[in-house]
Amino acid sequence: xxxxxxxxxxxxxxxxxxxxxxxxxxxxxxxxxxxxxxxxxxxxxxxxxxxxxxxxxxxxxxxxxxxxxxxxxxxxxxxxxxxxxxxxxxxxxxxx
Length: 96
Known about the structure:
Alpha-Beta Plaits; 3 helices; alpha+beta
C-alpha cells in the first residue's frame, strides 16, 4: 500500500474534477481531503497584506490517497492530467 499526499491549488470546480477522477481509479483504497490545521496568522501591516494570495483568489486543498502500490503511477499521472486540463497547481508533499 502506498500513501500519496498532495496539495492542490485552484478553483473548487477543478478540485472537484480531480477528486472524481481519482475516485475512479482501480486500486485506490482511500481518498480523503484533509482539514486545514495550519493557523493563519496574517498581519494587517505585513508587506504582503492585500496581495491577491491573501484575498483568497484560489483555494488550497490537502489530499491523502491510499493506493495499492502497482497503481501509484496511475494516480499521479491522472492527477497531473486533470491539473493540466483544469488549471490546478499540484504539490506532492511526500516521496513515495
